[in-house]
Design goal:
360 residues; Rossmann fold; 2 domains; 20 helices
Length: 360
Amino acid sequence: MTFLYNFGMSQDDAETEKKALDLHSGDKLLCIVSAGEVPLNLLASQDIHIDAADISLPQIYLARLKLNAALHLEPDEAAGFIGYSGGTAQERIRFYKKLKPYMEKEEQQFWDQYPIIFKKGLIHEARFEKYLSCFNWIAIHILNRKKLMRLFEFDDIGLQTKYFDEHLNSGRLRKIFQIVFHPRIYKNRGMDSQGLIHSGERNIAEFFFSRFRNFCTSTPARKNYLLQITFFNHILSEEALPEYLTEVGNQRLKKHATNLEFFHKSITSRLKNTTRGFYNKYALSNVSDWISREACMELLQILGDRSGNHAKVLIRYIHTSPHVPDQSKHILIPDYSFGEKLESQDRYPFYSLIPLTISK
């Protein structure tokens, strides 16, 4: 089975990047494109310059189409077109025709080949999201839809957590996780095999299950679009929209849109082509899970060499913690306790987080 791209949504919570990187107006950020939510959400909150790089051209096309939708459609139209909220295929086709004049020719040619994107929206045609959608109805049945919907009504995290523990924390879910994330099933179907090169013999199902409770209780469920789409394939209300599609965030995005540039290359290659001190903030997602240990060490060494003093970095990981080369250990200073605090507040708490500061 083939897929247009691996991820329809970035699983990185941009609010965490904001806190970890201490972003301020005028900062220059280098990040990974993924599905676009990190650069778009960050641009919707602050006047910073963002360079987003990725080796996957389809992921860049996806992020650029989301950007164009946010810029040239009404926020509710863009949400429907992208797939966060409802809409018909006919409506999405109409919106797409409206966006085509703003797209590069090669992007138009790419999307014209895949009319399937209009059926449910962009985010639902990715490998990861399509895979989860095969199983979420089972989880809803086990949890009881009526009981599950109650989780999204709380304003208080304490009450939300108490409700989850008393009514939803079912051992039966463990079996679902054992099936969904069984290595022989999950590999290639739910995740590109490259993203699992460091998973080894680890029981991924148990790991994800152990963090599922935090996913449901660490942040207000009624505002967490990642949680809502995982269960229902759409958001439940406008207050759960990603920041770049909210009324205030969308206006900021339009104001700062020229501050965002996309690069079809690796983060390492982009860094090699810049002068020392060009960037002072880095959001590297879980790059260490996707590249070899040697490649990750090279990236971190170049990052340390090319960054000015007090630059900040956030790295996420699921399978393997990034290895800082010996010659850079006195430069790249991790703050593990801060990382744990950030994890406890993240809207997608399946990653471990390592914030680093450049000290020269």
